[in-house]
Amino acid sequence: MSPQNLTNVYNQNPTLQGQYTLQQYLDLFGQGSTPTTPTPTPTPTPTPTPTPPSQGIINQNINQYQSGGGGNNPYMPNSNVNTNYKPDYDFRQFSEYGMNPSTMDVKQMDMNQNYFNAPTPSATQQFLSKAINFVPGIGTVKRGAEFLGNTLKGIMPINERAILENELRGAGIFTDDIGRIAIGPGGKYNTPEGIMAGYNANQMTDKTFDKRTGNIGKSLQEKTSLTEQQINDIVNEIATTGKYSGTLTDEELGVKNLFSNLVNVNMSKFNFKNRKKKSQDIRNFREAKRIQDELAAAAAAKSKAKALAAIKRQGRADYNPNIHGPNNYGRGSDGRQSFDSGQGFGVNSTTGGPVSNRTGRGRTDYRYGGRASYFNGGLVSLRRR
What we know:
This protein is mainly α. It has helices at residues 3-11, 14-19, 22-28, 89-97, 103-111, 113-116, 123-131, 138-153, 160-170, 206-223, 228-241, 250-253, 258-301, 304-316, 321-324, 370-373, and strands at residues 174-175, 181-182, 339-340, 346-347, 354-355. Helix 9 packs across helix 13 (258-301) and helix 13 runs antiparallel to helix 14 (304-316).
Protein backbone atom coordinates (compact mmCIF):
# COMPACT_ATOMS: atom_id res chain seq x y z
CA MET A 1 0.00 0.00 0.00
CA SER A 2 1.36 3.44 -0.91
CA PRO A 3 2.18 6.05 1.77
CA GLN A 4 -0.66 8.21 0.43
CA ASN A 5 -3.22 5.43 0.87
CA LEU A 6 -1.94 4.73 4.38
CA THR A 7 -2.24 8.42 5.17
CA ASN A 8 -5.82 8.48 3.93
CA VAL A 9 -6.67 5.51 6.15
CA TYR A 10 -5.07 7.19 9.15
CA ASN A 11 -6.88 10.49 8.60
CA GLN A 12 -10.24 8.73 8.45
CA ASN A 13 -9.85 6.53 11.53
CA PRO A 14 -10.07 8.06 15.03
CA THR A 15 -8.89 4.84 16.68
CA LEU A 16 -5.58 4.85 14.81
CA GLN A 17 -5.15 8.57 15.51
CA GLY A 18 -5.61 7.94 19.21
CA GLN A 19 -2.91 5.26 19.27
CA TYR A 20 -0.26 6.52 16.84
CA THR A 21 1.14 9.63 15.30
CA LEU A 22 0.92 9.52 11.52
CA GLN A 23 4.64 8.83 11.18
CA GLN A 24 4.48 5.98 13.73
CA TYR A 25 1.61 4.45 11.75
CA LEU A 26 3.60 4.69 8.49
CA ASP A 27 6.61 3.16 10.25
CA LEU A 28 4.60 0.03 11.01
CA PHE A 29 4.47 -0.61 7.25
CA GLY A 30 8.09 0.29 6.60
CA GLN A 31 7.25 3.58 4.89
CA GLY A 32 9.45 6.63 5.00
CA SER A 33 8.59 10.20 5.78
CA THR A 34 5.06 11.54 5.59
CA PRO A 35 4.15 12.12 1.91
CA THR A 36 2.02 15.16 2.52
CA THR A 37 1.00 17.32 5.40
CA PRO A 38 -1.96 15.52 6.99
CA THR A 39 -5.29 17.27 6.86
CA PRO A 40 -6.55 17.89 10.42
CA THR A 41 -9.57 15.78 11.30
CA PRO A 42 -12.64 18.08 11.32
CA THR A 43 -14.82 18.26 14.41
CA PRO A 44 -17.27 16.65 14.35
CA THR A 45 -15.82 13.89 12.16
CA PRO A 46 -17.83 13.51 8.92
CA THR A 47 -19.11 10.13 7.82
CA PRO A 48 -16.09 8.46 6.12
CA THR A 49 -16.30 7.28 2.52
CA PRO A 50 -15.78 3.49 2.25
CA THR A 51 -12.42 2.58 0.73
CA PRO A 52 -12.39 -0.01 -2.11
CA PRO A 53 -11.26 -3.48 -0.92
CA SER A 54 -8.55 -3.61 -3.61
CA GLN A 55 -6.31 -1.33 -1.55
CA GLY A 56 -5.25 -4.08 0.82
CA ILE A 57 -6.49 -6.01 3.83
CA ILE A 58 -5.50 -3.30 6.31
CA ASN A 59 -7.74 -0.93 4.37
CA GLN A 60 -10.57 -3.34 3.56
CA ASN A 61 -13.83 -2.21 5.19
CA ILE A 62 -11.85 -0.13 7.67
CA ASN A 63 -14.25 2.77 7.39
CA GLN A 64 -17.45 0.75 7.64
CA TYR A 65 -17.46 0.64 11.42
CA GLN A 66 -20.81 2.29 11.95
CA SER A 67 -23.80 -0.05 12.03
CA GLY A 68 -25.13 1.45 8.82
CA GLY A 69 -21.86 1.16 6.92
CA GLY A 70 -22.44 -2.30 5.50
CA GLY A 71 -19.93 -3.99 7.79
CA ASN A 72 -17.99 -3.76 11.03
CA ASN A 73 -14.58 -2.25 11.53
CA PRO A 74 -12.37 -5.04 12.97
CA TYR A 75 -10.22 -2.40 14.72
CA MET A 76 -13.09 -1.20 16.92
CA PRO A 77 -14.69 -3.10 19.83
CA ASN A 78 -17.57 -5.04 18.34
CA SER A 79 -20.38 -6.58 20.38
CA ASN A 80 -21.53 -8.63 17.37
CA VAL A 81 -18.53 -10.92 17.05
CA ASN A 82 -18.92 -14.53 18.13
CA THR A 83 -17.28 -15.02 21.53
CA ASN A 84 -18.73 -18.48 22.23
CA TYR A 85 -16.02 -21.13 22.61
CA LYS A 86 -17.21 -24.74 22.36
CA PRO A 87 -14.69 -27.29 23.67
CA ASP A 88 -14.28 -30.50 21.69
CA TYR A 89 -14.90 -32.92 24.56
CA ASP A 90 -14.19 -36.04 22.48
CA PHE A 91 -10.79 -34.66 21.53
CA ARG A 92 -10.06 -33.80 25.16
CA GLN A 93 -10.69 -37.40 26.14
CA PHE A 94 -8.61 -38.71 23.27
CA SER A 95 -5.67 -36.35 23.87
CA GLU A 96 -5.48 -37.43 27.52
CA TYR A 97 -6.33 -41.13 27.39
CA GLY A 98 -6.38 -42.26 23.74
CA MET A 99 -9.17 -43.97 21.85
CA ASN A 100 -9.48 -46.91 24.26
CA PRO A 101 -9.35 -45.57 27.83
CA SER A 102 -8.96 -48.07 30.63
CA THR A 103 -11.43 -48.43 33.49
CA MET A 104 -9.15 -46.30 35.65
CA ASP A 105 -9.01 -43.65 32.91
CA VAL A 106 -12.80 -43.55 32.75
CA LYS A 107 -12.92 -43.05 36.51
CA GLN A 108 -10.47 -40.17 36.19
CA MET A 109 -12.67 -38.55 33.55
CA ASP A 110 -15.73 -39.06 35.76
CA MET A 111 -13.92 -37.16 38.52
CA ASN A 112 -13.45 -34.23 36.09
CA GLN A 113 -16.87 -34.17 34.45
CA ASN A 114 -16.81 -30.46 33.64
CA TYR A 115 -13.59 -30.78 31.64
CA PHE A 116 -14.14 -34.05 29.79
CA ASN A 117 -17.90 -34.05 29.20
CA ALA A 118 -20.38 -31.58 27.78
CA PRO A 119 -22.73 -30.05 30.36
CA THR A 120 -26.00 -31.89 30.85
CA PRO A 121 -28.87 -29.85 29.39
CA SER A 122 -31.00 -28.16 32.03
CA ALA A 123 -34.53 -29.38 32.71
CA THR A 124 -35.87 -26.39 30.80
CA GLN A 125 -33.65 -27.10 27.79
CA GLN A 126 -34.69 -30.74 27.76
CA PHE A 127 -38.35 -29.79 28.00
CA LEU A 128 -38.11 -27.29 25.15
CA SER A 129 -36.22 -29.77 22.98
CA LYS A 130 -39.01 -32.31 23.42
CA ALA A 131 -41.84 -29.78 23.22
CA ILE A 132 -40.74 -28.43 19.83
CA ASN A 133 -41.35 -31.86 18.33
CA PHE A 134 -45.08 -31.38 18.95
CA VAL A 135 -45.34 -27.98 17.27
CA PRO A 136 -47.19 -28.52 13.96
CA GLY A 137 -44.70 -28.51 11.10
CA ILE A 138 -41.69 -27.59 13.24
CA GLY A 139 -41.17 -31.06 14.70
CA THR A 140 -40.98 -32.61 11.24
CA VAL A 141 -38.50 -29.98 10.07
CA LYS A 142 -36.35 -30.46 13.18
CA ARG A 143 -36.24 -34.23 12.83
CA GLY A 144 -35.51 -33.87 9.12
CA ALA A 145 -32.63 -31.50 9.82
CA GLU A 146 -31.20 -33.88 12.43
CA PHE A 147 -31.46 -36.80 10.00
CA LEU A 148 -29.84 -34.80 7.22
CA GLY A 149 -27.09 -33.63 9.56
CA ASN A 150 -26.27 -37.18 10.61
CA THR A 151 -26.35 -38.34 6.98
CA LEU A 152 -24.03 -35.60 5.75
CA LYS A 153 -21.68 -35.95 8.72
CA GLY A 154 -19.84 -38.82 7.07
CA ILE A 155 -19.83 -37.21 3.62
CA MET A 156 -19.13 -33.52 3.99
CA PRO A 157 -15.50 -32.44 4.42
CA ILE A 158 -14.41 -31.36 7.88
CA ASN A 159 -14.71 -27.57 8.28
CA GLU A 160 -11.13 -26.64 9.16
CA ARG A 161 -11.85 -22.90 9.24
CA ALA A 162 -14.62 -23.38 11.81
CA ILE A 163 -12.32 -25.48 14.00
CA LEU A 164 -9.55 -22.86 13.86
CA GLU A 165 -11.85 -19.93 14.63
CA ASN A 166 -13.38 -21.82 17.55
CA GLU A 167 -9.95 -22.59 19.01
CA LEU A 168 -8.92 -18.96 18.58
CA ARG A 169 -11.99 -17.93 20.57
CA GLY A 170 -10.71 -20.20 23.32
CA ALA A 171 -7.66 -17.93 23.50
CA GLY A 172 -9.72 -14.73 23.44
CA ILE A 173 -9.02 -14.06 19.75
CA PHE A 174 -12.25 -13.32 17.88
CA THR A 175 -13.19 -13.22 14.21
CA ASP A 176 -15.98 -11.48 12.32
CA ASP A 177 -18.41 -13.07 9.89
CA ILE A 178 -15.92 -13.01 7.01
CA GLY A 179 -13.08 -14.55 9.00
CA ARG A 180 -11.04 -11.45 9.89
CA ILE A 181 -9.58 -11.15 13.35
CA ALA A 182 -11.70 -8.55 15.13
CA ILE A 183 -11.75 -6.84 18.51
CA GLY A 184 -14.46 -8.19 20.77
CA PRO A 185 -16.59 -6.35 23.34
CA GLY A 186 -14.43 -4.32 25.69
CA GLY A 187 -11.27 -5.34 23.85
CA LYS A 188 -8.37 -3.20 22.65
CA TYR A 189 -6.23 -3.16 19.54
CA ASN A 190 -2.78 -3.05 21.13
CA THR A 191 -3.06 -6.42 22.90
CA PRO A 192 -1.96 -9.94 21.94
CA GLU A 193 -5.61 -10.68 21.12
CA GLY A 194 -6.30 -7.56 19.05
CA ILE A 195 -3.00 -6.61 17.43
CA MET A 196 -3.66 -8.67 14.27
CA ALA A 197 -7.13 -7.21 13.72
CA GLY A 198 -8.06 -7.04 10.04
CA TYR A 199 -6.11 -10.12 8.96
CA ASN A 200 -7.96 -13.19 7.70
CA ALA A 201 -7.23 -15.84 10.33
CA ASN A 202 -7.50 -18.74 7.90
CA GLN A 203 -4.81 -17.24 5.65
CA MET A 204 -2.29 -16.24 8.30
CA THR A 205 1.15 -17.88 8.44
CA ASP A 206 4.42 -17.23 10.26
CA LYS A 207 5.32 -14.79 7.47
CA THR A 208 2.27 -12.67 8.33
CA PHE A 209 3.67 -12.00 11.79
CA ASP A 210 7.33 -11.88 10.74
CA LYS A 211 6.68 -9.12 8.19
CA ARG A 212 5.14 -6.91 10.85
CA THR A 213 7.93 -7.74 13.30
CA GLY A 214 10.51 -6.76 10.68
CA ASN A 215 8.89 -3.39 10.00
CA ILE A 216 8.46 -2.58 13.69
CA GLY A 217 12.02 -3.71 14.42
CA LYS A 218 13.45 -1.36 11.80
CA SER A 219 11.52 1.56 13.25
CA LEU A 220 12.72 0.75 16.77
CA GLN A 221 16.34 0.70 15.61
CA GLU A 222 15.88 4.09 13.94
CA LYS A 223 14.05 5.74 16.83
CA THR A 224 15.63 4.14 19.92
CA SER A 225 18.91 2.78 21.20
CA LEU A 226 17.81 -0.83 20.71
CA THR A 227 20.09 -2.90 18.49
CA GLU A 228 19.03 -5.58 16.04
CA GLN A 229 20.44 -8.25 18.38
CA GLN A 230 18.47 -6.94 21.35
CA ILE A 231 15.26 -6.97 19.32
CA ASN A 232 15.98 -10.49 18.07
CA ASP A 233 16.59 -11.66 21.64
CA ILE A 234 13.19 -10.31 22.70
CA VAL A 235 11.48 -11.93 19.72
CA ASN A 236 13.19 -15.27 20.37
CA GLU A 237 12.26 -15.22 24.06
CA ILE A 238 8.58 -14.72 23.24
CA ALA A 239 8.75 -17.41 20.55
CA THR A 240 9.99 -19.85 23.21
CA THR A 241 7.98 -18.87 26.28
CA GLY A 242 5.08 -16.81 24.95
CA LYS A 243 6.04 -13.96 27.26
CA TYR A 244 8.43 -11.01 27.56
CA SER A 245 10.26 -11.01 30.90
CA GLY A 246 12.06 -7.69 30.48
CA THR A 247 11.12 -4.27 31.83
CA LEU A 248 11.41 -2.05 28.75
CA THR A 249 8.37 0.09 27.96
CA ASP A 250 7.26 2.52 25.26
CA GLU A 251 7.63 5.39 27.74
CA GLU A 252 11.18 4.42 28.66
CA LEU A 253 12.17 4.19 25.00
CA GLY A 254 10.39 7.44 24.09
CA VAL A 255 8.01 5.91 21.54
CA LYS A 256 4.24 5.59 21.37
CA ASN A 257 3.05 1.96 21.24
CA LEU A 258 5.93 0.88 19.00
CA PHE A 259 7.69 -1.38 21.50
CA SER A 260 4.44 -2.76 22.93
CA ASN A 261 3.38 -3.52 19.34
CA LEU A 262 6.54 -5.62 18.91
CA VAL A 263 5.78 -7.58 22.07
CA ASN A 264 2.10 -8.05 21.29
CA VAL A 265 2.63 -9.13 17.68
CA ASN A 266 4.98 -11.87 18.81
CA MET A 267 2.82 -12.95 21.74
CA SER A 268 -0.03 -13.16 19.25
CA LYS A 269 2.15 -15.30 16.96
CA PHE A 270 2.93 -17.68 19.83
CA ASN A 271 -0.75 -18.06 20.75
CA PHE A 272 -1.85 -18.36 17.12
CA LYS A 273 0.67 -21.13 16.34
CA ASN A 274 -0.45 -23.15 19.36
CA ARG A 275 -4.13 -22.79 18.46
CA LYS A 276 -3.49 -23.60 14.81
CA LYS A 277 -1.62 -26.76 15.76
CA LYS A 278 -4.41 -27.81 18.10
CA SER A 279 -7.03 -27.18 15.41
CA GLN A 280 -5.06 -29.38 13.01
CA ASP A 281 -4.83 -32.10 15.68
CA ILE A 282 -8.60 -31.90 16.15
CA ARG A 283 -9.14 -32.13 12.40
CA ASN A 284 -6.91 -35.22 12.20
CA PHE A 285 -8.71 -36.77 15.16
CA ARG A 286 -12.16 -36.18 13.67
CA GLU A 287 -11.15 -37.69 10.33
CA ALA A 288 -9.71 -40.75 12.09
CA LYS A 289 -12.80 -41.05 14.29
CA ARG A 290 -15.05 -40.85 11.25
CA ILE A 291 -13.23 -43.72 9.54
CA GLN A 292 -13.21 -45.75 12.75
CA ASP A 293 -16.97 -45.28 13.11
CA GLU A 294 -17.42 -46.49 9.53
CA LEU A 295 -15.38 -49.61 10.26
CA ALA A 296 -17.35 -50.25 13.46
CA ALA A 297 -20.64 -49.83 11.60
CA ALA A 298 -19.42 -52.18 8.86
CA ALA A 299 -18.45 -54.79 11.46
CA ALA A 300 -21.83 -54.48 13.18
CA ALA A 301 -23.61 -54.91 9.85
CA LYS A 302 -21.17 -57.65 8.81
CA SER A 303 -20.74 -55.73 5.57
CA LYS A 304 -17.52 -56.48 3.71
CA ALA A 305 -18.36 -53.81 1.13
CA LYS A 306 -18.65 -51.08 3.79
CA ALA A 307 -15.45 -52.23 5.48
CA LEU A 308 -13.53 -52.10 2.20
CA ALA A 309 -14.96 -48.62 1.50
CA ALA A 310 -13.64 -47.38 4.85
CA ILE A 311 -10.27 -49.00 4.22
CA LYS A 312 -10.05 -47.34 0.81
CA ARG A 313 -10.83 -43.99 2.46
CA GLN A 314 -7.86 -44.56 4.77
CA GLY A 315 -5.56 -45.00 1.80
CA ARG A 316 -6.91 -41.96 -0.04
CA ALA A 317 -6.56 -39.66 2.97
CA ASP A 318 -3.53 -37.43 3.36
CA TYR A 319 -1.03 -38.66 5.93
CA ASN A 320 -2.65 -38.52 9.34
CA PRO A 321 -0.74 -39.97 12.34
CA ASN A 322 -4.03 -40.96 13.96
CA ILE A 323 -4.91 -43.07 10.91
CA HIS A 324 -1.64 -44.17 9.34
CA GLY A 325 0.62 -44.40 12.39
CA PRO A 326 3.38 -42.20 13.81
CA ASN A 327 5.77 -42.51 10.84
CA ASN A 328 4.94 -41.29 7.35
CA TYR A 329 5.96 -43.92 4.78
CA GLY A 330 4.61 -41.86 1.89
CA ARG A 331 2.35 -42.89 -0.97
CA GLY A 332 2.79 -45.95 -3.13
CA SER A 333 2.90 -46.08 -6.91
CA ASP A 334 -0.90 -46.35 -6.77
CA GLY A 335 -1.02 -42.92 -5.14
CA ARG A 336 -2.41 -44.21 -1.85
CA GLN A 337 -0.99 -43.50 1.59
CA SER A 338 1.02 -46.28 3.23
CA PHE A 339 0.73 -47.30 6.89
CA ASP A 340 3.22 -47.61 9.72
CA SER A 341 3.17 -51.27 10.78
CA GLY A 342 4.53 -50.39 14.22
CA GLN A 343 7.40 -52.81 13.63
CA GLY A 344 9.92 -50.55 11.94
CA PHE A 345 8.54 -50.64 8.41
CA GLY A 346 5.52 -49.45 6.49
CA VAL A 347 2.73 -51.33 4.76
CA ASN A 348 1.37 -50.64 1.29
CA SER A 349 -2.32 -49.77 1.48
CA THR A 350 -3.22 -51.70 -1.69
CA THR A 351 -1.27 -54.94 -1.51
CA GLY A 352 -0.63 -55.19 2.21
CA GLY A 353 3.04 -55.73 1.40
CA PRO A 354 5.86 -54.27 3.53
CA VAL A 355 7.33 -50.85 2.73
CA SER A 356 10.93 -50.45 3.87
CA ASN A 357 11.44 -46.80 2.97
CA ARG A 358 9.61 -43.48 3.21
CA THR A 359 8.57 -43.32 -0.45
CA GLY A 360 5.62 -45.65 0.10
CA ARG A 361 6.87 -48.07 -2.53
CA GLY A 362 9.57 -50.34 -1.10
CA ARG A 363 8.87 -54.06 -1.53
CA THR A 364 5.20 -54.61 -2.37
CA ASP A 365 5.14 -58.23 -3.62
CA TYR A 366 4.94 -59.99 -0.27
CA ARG A 367 1.55 -59.82 1.45
CA TYR A 368 1.90 -59.22 5.20
CA GLY A 369 -1.10 -60.69 6.94
CA GLY A 370 -3.81 -59.58 4.52
CA ARG A 371 -5.71 -56.31 4.27
CA ALA A 372 -7.05 -56.09 7.82
CA SER A 373 -4.13 -56.89 10.09
CA TYR A 374 -1.81 -54.17 8.87
CA PHE A 375 -3.75 -51.41 10.62
CA ASN A 376 -2.23 -52.21 13.99
CA GLY A 377 0.13 -49.23 13.79
CA GLY A 378 -2.53 -46.52 13.77
CA LEU A 379 -5.55 -45.27 15.62
CA VAL A 380 -8.07 -46.84 13.25
CA SER A 381 -7.57 -50.54 13.85
CA LEU A 382 -9.56 -53.67 13.07
CA ARG A 383 -7.96 -55.43 16.01
CA ARG A 384 -7.03 -53.91 19.37
CA ARG A 385 -3.54 -53.93 20.74
